[in-house]
Amino acid sequence: MTGHGPRPDRLVVAGGHVLTMDPATGDLPRADVLVENGRIADVRQDIEAPGAERIDARHCLVLPGFVDTHRHMWQAVLRGYGADQTLEEYFGATLHAYGSSLGPGELHLGNLLSALGALDAGVTTVQDISNATKSTEEHTDALVDALEESGIRAVFAYGHGPEADARRIRSRRLHSADALVTMALNAELGGDASVRRDWGLARELGIPLALHVRGGQPLSRLRRLGLLRPGTVYIHGTGLDRGELKLIADSGGALSIAPAIEMTMGHGLPPFAAAASAGLRPSLSADVEVAAGSDLFGQMRTAFQVSRFAVLHRHDDAPDRLPTSRDILEFATIEGARALGLDDRIGSLTPGKQADLVVLRADRPGVVPVHDAVKTVVCAMDRADVDTVLVAGRIVKRAGHLLRPDLAALVDRAAAVRDRLTG
Asked: Rounded CA gap, 44 and 273, in Å?
């Protein structure tokens, strides 16, 4: 069973308020988006496309799919389990206890549920920071299988498994840079020798790195080891001073902030203000579904609130400029694509890019009237407003429904896993 819906050769998303996230095109209060063979062919008013399938986007907002740059997707089978946990409690009770106890089928279900929850909420791309224990090749294959079956665009950041298995996945499964699912390495900051091994493995495999950093001087250490490299995604960044954050920017790295989890689990204040002072524009992430939702609407709202609070109350050597709702929407779209090195193909509705897009209903009682489309997305909308979702031109959700005939069976499987773990 796959989550891939139909991909029409020609498709017009017609009559919506289009937020292209491309400064050259801007916002178009009424426009059509023409999709041909999975790519955006044109964005303008009144496109004539005889014979093309049409999606009526009147009374809707049309924008690029959201990009989540850091999510431990297997943990979707534990949703809500760790909502009251601190970070240390999470490490013990969730990551170590459950991370090593789930079988291949349960890991497959976790990744699949996470991917479908993301698509349902308009998140078309996720970097899966895969930190479940990979006891066998079957465990790893189950995780990758789920991503490929779901229809989502994903970066599978391999972690918590042997180097030989990572080499196998790279050579036999995730070897194409043009595929919907690509590969990265979830690195760890252990001793100098192990750090050099991780970076050497990433270089050998020709893949980017993702790395959790909190406090101290991790970037200075990597610089000392000669391991700063462009394309690395640094996760959280809480507690880093401006110099450390500037090393991310100067080295061509990217910052992924998970504001909801950072506030509730005790990582520290999400570093939006400090990042801005260092010249960094971050991306957003949901992090762990044991304690956060699988959408980016909540993350955008938390980011908006926290980042403005920091400036208004002069936290983290904050800059004078207040972040805007457009900044936050950029963090959730084009900046996420840029962080993952995918901005040449997704992140904006630019002709030539792949058609990852979302249609949001703007005629619901909790949304109308729409005075400003960007502000409405960031401050008023949620997953219930997601009407239609495309990934590479393929329709994965339409008229409010995921195109998965097996959803009821997945719900039953999820309940069975819960009952086994809590029984």
From this structure: 36
